[in-house]
Design a protein that fits this description.
Elements (H helix, E strand, L loop, with lengths): L13 H19 L5 H8 L3 H29 L1 H21 L3 H33 L4 H24 L4 H19 L21 H29 L10 H15 L1 H8 L1 H21 L3 H15 L2 H11 L5 H29 L2 H18 L6
Length: 383
């Protein structure tokens, strides 16, 4: 079967840019809806931190396996079909995550959920690279800003529904309706093709692609820590009511959204290198504040600073992937997405094991040190 090649006369325009933004919103909304449900799943199944970390590893495995497959499928069937299929997988998994209590069923549900997330994330970034290049403008921060906006709506919205006394299952049905409506809006102008480049579905990243992927891994690890562990940290260490524990991720997503929606202008003014350096320093300081300050209000401020610092690092790195010529983009994008999202999806499982052996605060401290390494390493990346 041959890849779908876009007609020469067809170039992505404003409608395709809008559909790309909606697809990023779907990705952020879907993954953030899970954050407020984590404490409920933990309590329902009677899990400790180590067991929860093992279960979250299933989410990461599902996503990482799906990412390279998604871009390969997009090259054959188009971004539209693959993005739609990934969104439907998310919708199928959410009710299971809100109801099942046995560990085997939770593992299966998390694997399915991760596969849907990985499919959407990898494919939408491939579409974003194609659409940004066709526009001739810097648009990646704005695209990723819609991911963060989806994170705000997902985390805060589900937290609000739970706070009103709606059951986790009821909240997930609201999420599913919202996801399907968003998909129907975006689908007509999602790209019916993928990258025209040929090559294997996955290749080990090397050279500058490996370097970019490593930085993505650390930044996404910090994001994954806030997504999967901030609610647990706020409830167990800061004694915040479970219904409001999703506010930690909401604070992070709010500042990340503002940073990314204004990020194209920020990158233009400061330059990509300074964005990486200052962003890494700010994120590290915020995570330390959230971990060491005794008040839950200070923790929310710390998570907000993590969002400020991380907001434009990853968009800058994806733009760099679109400019490099070491690997074809349809291979490089899933390669760094897979390596990067190993941080946001598989990384939190490692955090669980560290927290089980020492403490959650110690695990967060290690991530802060890695963010400092991102700030130092950013000077070596020519973007």
């Amino acid at each position: 079967m041959t890849a779908i090649i876009p007609p020469v006369s067809v170039r992505p325009g404003r409608l395709e840019q809008m559909s790309t933004r909606i697809a990023f919103f779907i990705a952020g909304f879907g993954i953030a809806a899970w954050a407020p449900l984590v404490p409920y799943a933990k309590a329902r199944a009677g899990l400790d931190d180590g067991t929860l970390g093992l279960l979250l590893l299933c989410l990461g495995v599902g996503s990482i396996l799906a990412m390279p497959m998604a871009c390969a499928l997009a090259s054959r069937f188009g971004c539209r079909r693959v993005l739609s299929g990934g969104t439907l997988l998310i919708c199928l998994a959410l009710p299971l995550l809100a109801t099942v209590s046995s560990i085997p069923l939770l593992m299966a549900a998390l694997f399915l959920f991760g596969a849907g997330l990985g499919t959407v994330d990898s494919t939408v970034n491939l579409q974003a690279v194609i659409v940004e290049r066709a526009s001739g403008k810097t648009m990646m921060s704005g695209f990723h800003g819609l991911f963060s906006l989806g994170g705000i709506v997902g985390a805060a919205g589900v937290s609000a529904l739970l706070g009103l006394g709606i059951s986790p299952l009821g909240a997930t049905w609201v999420v599913i309706v919202f996801l399907l409506v968003s998909l129907l809006k975006a689908a007509p102008h999602l790209l019916p093709y993928g990258s025209a480049s040929s090559g294997p579905a996955f290749a080990i990243p090397h050279g500058v692609v490996l370097f970019i992927g490593s930085l993505c891994f650390i930044v996404f690890l910090a994001e994954g820590a806030v997504l999967d562990w901030s609610a647990v940290f706020l409830t167990s260490e800061r004694h915040l009511d479970t219904a409001y524990a999703g506010l930690g991720y909401a604070a992070f997503a709010l500042t990340m959204t503002v940073g990314r929606l204004t990020g194209d202008a920020i990158v233009h003014k400061l330059g990509a290198t300074r964005v990486i350096v200052f962003g890494g320093l700010t994120a590290a300081a915020g995570l330390l504040l959230a971990t060491l300050a005794p008040a839950w209000e200070a923790a929310l401020i710390g998570y907000a600073l993590v969002g400020v610092g991380c907001s434009n690092i990853v968009p800058v790195l994806y733009t760099a992937v679109g400019k490099q010529n070491v690997m074809p983009e349809n291979i490089a994008v899933p390669a760094i997405t897979t390596l990067g999202y190993a941080g946001i999806l598989a990384g939190p499982a490692v955090i669980g094991f560290i927290a089980h052996g020492s403490s959650l605060s110690f695990a967060f401290g290690l991530i802060a040190v890695l963010l400092l390494a991102v700030a130092v390493s950013g000077k070596a990346l020519k973007v």
